[in-house]
Specification:
The protein is of the alpha/beta class. The chain is 25% helix and 26% strand. The protein has helices spanning 20-28, 55-62, 77-84, 102-105, 128-134, 170-195, 227-236, 301-306; strands spanning 8-14, 32-38, 43-45, 50-52, 67-68, 90-94, 112-116, 124-125, 139-146, 156-163, 210-211, 243-247, 250-259, 277-279, 285-293, 299-300. The chain is elongated, with a radius of gyration of 23 Å.
Length: 317
């Protein structure tokens, strides 16, 4: 394949914002021909619940790339046949959200490559960004992998790491890995174009762990946890599903907090003072910085006290 001027025929399969940079890189590259984009069907969004296409769908439409939105590839023989008829060299998958059956995985000449937001085999699954922060990992990253029928189990083609800092949130890490994934995807395809093959490393299953899909209940704070654990939870679940606690029978969201060096012997969940210190497990403490009371706007801790939403000696449930 080396030395040929023939463009790679590529399909892109992705849905949310995370996948947009990768598609943009592919569109901009002179040696790749994006012949089709697959994305999840348009869905109601926002307060008006108007049906809107996904971010990937919108980008493809702006560049006049045919967009396919099957509800399922596994259950739709016609959609699978249509994919096979594209006669692809390769498909790039990034947060698509649909299961790809073996017929689809094997249809492109070089298979399907996935942009996964973790350093595999650590954090296979739907929420690797959040779980890396929540678990206190020192680093995260992106893996380009050859897809197979197992969940994120395929051989690894490229990996690149980034540091998780003390103030890293799921949103900030998402944005960093999204940009990195787009660049790494191009690096892999340029290598394929140059060498006509992709070398890959088999994953060590004994080192794997899973990051299941997040639920709203995951955001509930257990004040018996240490301040460090709660801080990681707040950052990991920002912006969704968000972290919350109950005060006076009402739900209160915690958008931002910081670790403090002080130790508190009060029962975990007790509000210590007017600057937002809260007692946590093992005599540790956290300072709340931005919160959002039920049916109210987001506010700093001074605004919360002035509005009588919180008070000293009250205890979160």
């Amino acid at each position: 394949m080396a030395g040929e001027t023939k463009k790679l025929r590529v399909a892109f399969m992705g849905t949310p914002d995370f996948a947009v940079p990768a598609l943009q890189h592919l569109i901009d590259h002179e040696e790749f021909d994006v012949v089709a984009v697959y994305s999840q069907p348009p869905r109601p969004k926002g307060r008006g619940h108007q049906v809107q296409p996904s971010p990937v769908h919108e980008l493809a439409a702006r560049h006049d790339i045919p967009v396919h939105t099957p509800k399922s590839l596994k259950k739709d023989p016609a959609a699978r046949a249509q994919f096979t008829e594209l006669e692809l060299d390769v498909a790039i998958v990034a947060a698509y959200g649909l299961i790809l059956p073996l017929e689809v995985l094997e249809a492109p000449k070089y298979g399907c490559l996935n942009i996964h937001a973790s350093l595999l085999p650590r954090w296979r699954g739907a929420a690797p960004i959040q779980y890396a922060i929540w678990a206190g990992d020192a680093e995260s990253g992106v893996t380009i992998m050859q897809m197979e029928e197992g969940l994120d189990t395929g051989p690894m083609i490229l990996k690149r790491a980034v540091t998780i800092h003390p103030h890293t949130t799921a949103q900030s890490l998402h944005d960093e890995l999204s940009a990195m994934g787009g660049a790494l995807c191009i690096e892999a395809l340029e290598k394929l174009l140059r060498d006509g093959k992709l070398e890959a490393e088999v994953q060590d299953d004994s080192l794997s762990c899973y990051a299941p899909m997040l639920k709203k209940e995951d955001g509930h704070v257990e004040w018996s946890d240490t301040a460090d654990a709660i801080d990681r939870q707040i950052r990991a679940l920002n912006p969704w599903p968000g972290v919350w606690a109950t005060l006076d029978g009402k739900r209160l969201k915690i958008h931002k907090a910081e670790l403090v060096s002080e130790h508190f012997t009060e029962p975990p969940g007790t509000i210590i003072d007017h600057i937002g210190h809260v007692a946590c497990g093992q005599d540790t403490g956290l300072r709340l910085l931005e919160i959002q009371p039920e049916n109210a706007r987001r506010m700093d801790i001074a605004g919360a006290y002035n509005g009588n939403y919180i008070d000293v000696d009250k205890k979160f449930a």
